Amino acid sequence: METRVYEMTGADQVKVKGIIEANPYAPISFARQGYKLKEGKGVGGDAGKYYLFIKGEPDFFKWADEQVKVAAIESFKRSEKPIEAKVIASIEEEENAAEQGMGAIFG
Predict the structure, then answer these.
(1) CATH code at 58?
(2) Across residues 35-62, what is the average pLDDT?
(3) C or N terminus of the chain, fewer CB within 10 Å?
(4) What Rg, from alpha-carbon coordinates, does the chain have?
(5) Is the dihedral of CA 39, 45, 51, 57 positive or negative?
(6) How is the chain classified by DSSP, letter by letter?
(7) Can you say whether residue 92 is alpha, beta or left, with left for phi > 0 and alpha for psi between -120 and 50 degrees?
(8) Which residues contact 35 (CB under 8 A, 6 or more apart)?
(9) What does the pLDDT look like over 17-27, one tens digit per residue?
(10) What total number of domains does the chain contain?
(11) Per-residue confidence at 95, pLDDT binned at 50, 70, 90?
């Protein structure tokens, strides 16, 4: 499974949100894959940008790239490696903290 981070402007975030929330019960969808859409400042990225974090298989990413291409969202692109690594680390740290918190409650 591969992890990718995409970025977009705040204005285009609304358009991207429409795509990722569409058809959640389809055989291939963002909802089935799981994703996180975060504001840049909160995940170590640029202020004013939004970041889409996704884990998936290559076939999913081919499908996802096509969905965005059809929607013609100009600012949507894959983040550069250093930014992608920062965002992934931030989100994984957040997920680990949540898991530890649940472990403390139910552990």
Answers:
(1) 3.30.70
(2) 93
(3) C
(4) 14
(5) negative
(6) -EEEEEEEEHHHHHHHHHHHTS-TTSSS-HHHH-EEEEEGGGGTS-TTEEEEEEEE-HHHHHHHHHHHHHHT-TT-EEPPHHHHHHHHHHHHHHHHHHHHHHHHHH-
(7) alpha
(8) 20, 52, 53, 54
(9) 999 999 999 99
(10) 1
(11) confident
Q: Name the one residue in this structure whose structure tokens are 């969202």.
A: 73
Looking at residue 76, its amino acid is F
Structure-token pair, residue 20: 């990722």
CA distances to 6, 48, 91, 93, 106 from 103, rounded to whole Å, are 31, 34, 18, 15, 5
Task: Tell me the residue range of the domain where 48 lies.
Answer: 2-106
Residue with tokens 């965002």: 87
